[in-house]
Amino acid sequence: MNNKKTFSIGGIHPDKHKISSHIAISDAGLPAEVFIPVKQHIGSPAKILVQKGDKVKVGTLIADADGIISADVHSSVSGEVTKIEDIQSETGYLEQVITIRVEGDEFEPGIDRSPDIVSEISQNAEEIIEIIRGAGIVGMGGAGFPTPVKTTVPEDKKAEILIINGIECEPYLTADDRLMVEKAEQIVIGAKIINKALGIQNAVIAIDENKPQAVEIIRQITKRYVGVNVQVCKTKYPQGGERQLIQALTGKEVPAGKHPIDIGCIVQNVGTVFAVYEAVMKHKPLFERIVTVSGDDILNPSNFRVRIGTPASFLINKAGLKENSVGKVIFGGPMMGRAIVNMDAPVTKTTSGILVLPESEAYKPDETSCIRCGKCVAACPVGLQPYAIARSIRENDLNEAKRLSARECIECGSCAYTCPARIPLLDFCKLAKYEFKKRK
After folding, report:
1. CA neighbor of 256 nearest in space, from 383, 379, 148, 142
2. Chain centroid to CA 235: how far?
3. How large is the average pLDDT for residues 155-162?
4. Which of 66, 122, 154, 331 keeps 20 to 30 A from 390, CA to CA?
5. pLDDT by residue (tens digit) across 102-130?
6. Sequence-separated (6 or more) residues with CB below 8 Å from residue 3
């Protein structure tokens, strides 16, 4: 598997801006308060188990999964529950949040905080999945799909390959890169754990060619572990997209309306795999993650180990700003991330980065008329016609947007990035999908 692979349709090459790739992970420290949402995942919000005045420790279960498509939520700090209320999330919507005032840093008993690496997997498949469920692990690449559901193969399906997504193709973001460099063996063991849960011996860790240190370190470690290999991929955005990565590695395409498991594939982000290792081998719930804080106006671009619920403002202040004015703050990367409206919006299980853009980069340019150049069509990794979808939405023709398969858009933003007329093509595709939901 020495040949570098990539997906075959579309894609772009934005400037990487990986200015924090050489910065080792450091602990962000504890804020005065954390704001922990009870919905940090796809599916139903977790049911709150605590009330105002309760004392909690690091790792205390504070909200219980409500149904199969849901996830447990644990306290990331020790202290007192001071509020349970709706506050603005990073999207601007009100979400139910548990506020905890930090008092010391006392952990629940049983959590192994030693640096020792544990490699012997003694649990069976059912026990592994139950531990993952109890740890509240979800997809940490951004989707937030509950991991125990993803690792439970339906009776009529068969898993053939586990793909570990270490691509991290978004500009600026380097959290996954640093995690692979510093926690490589734990990630490989995590892959073995998921392999055992799936009943297979075939895991491939996919890494972008612009991460040579991570490639070399993990390659050396996989030599000691049967069933886990490394595949280097060409640098192209959005290579980290689940369907694009599957096509690049296996040559198979996930049919519209189907899931990866329908063609024998399971894809997990490296952060998720590391969380699985910590849950199974260290008895540690998911209450912290690695977050990149970066941007051209950040004094010290950093990769922080961050407790869930930490306000964005705390991390930005920790990294330092060159200027007093901030044009835009984005949770995630510049291509698929969301601009936040509340500077105290909390880090969640799916927050991979916080990007601070100066005002010179945060404006929306004036659009001009479409010149029918076809660049958006050539860039689309799904093979859509973004210019035509935009036209159909402008004309309020939802049936035409449906005929153009607008709901298959993966919202990568490649179309808008390439458009010389600066038409917000991604916005129109998102609007089409929103209107489909309303109609349904």
Report:
1. 383
2. 19
3. 94
4. 331
5. 999 999 999 999 999 999 999 999 999 99
6. none
Confidence category of residue 407, pLDDT binned at 50, 70, 90: very high
Q: Does the pLDDT of residue 90 top 80, yes or no?
A: no
Confidence of residue 388 (pLDDT cuts 50, 70, 90): very high
Nearest to 167 by CA among 282, 11, 295: 11
Question: What pairing do the DSSP bridges indicate for beta strands 288-294 and 353-357?
Answer: parallel
CA nearest 294: which of 277, 276, 312, 274? Answer: 312
Q: What is the 3-state secondary structure (H, E, C) of 265-291?
A: EEEEEHHHHHHHHHHHHHCCCCCEEEE
Q: Which residue has the tokens 């979400």?
A: 95
Helices (H), 155-284: 175-182, 184-198, 212-222, 242-250, 270-282
CB-based contact 230:222 (threshold 8 Å): yes
pLDDT at 40: 93
Give the C-alpha separation, 227 to 195, whole Å: 8
Token readout for 203 is: 């895991």
Distances (CA, A) of 398 to 369, 409, 411: 22, 15, 18
Q: Which amino acid is at 251?
A: G
What is the model's pLDDT at position 352? 96
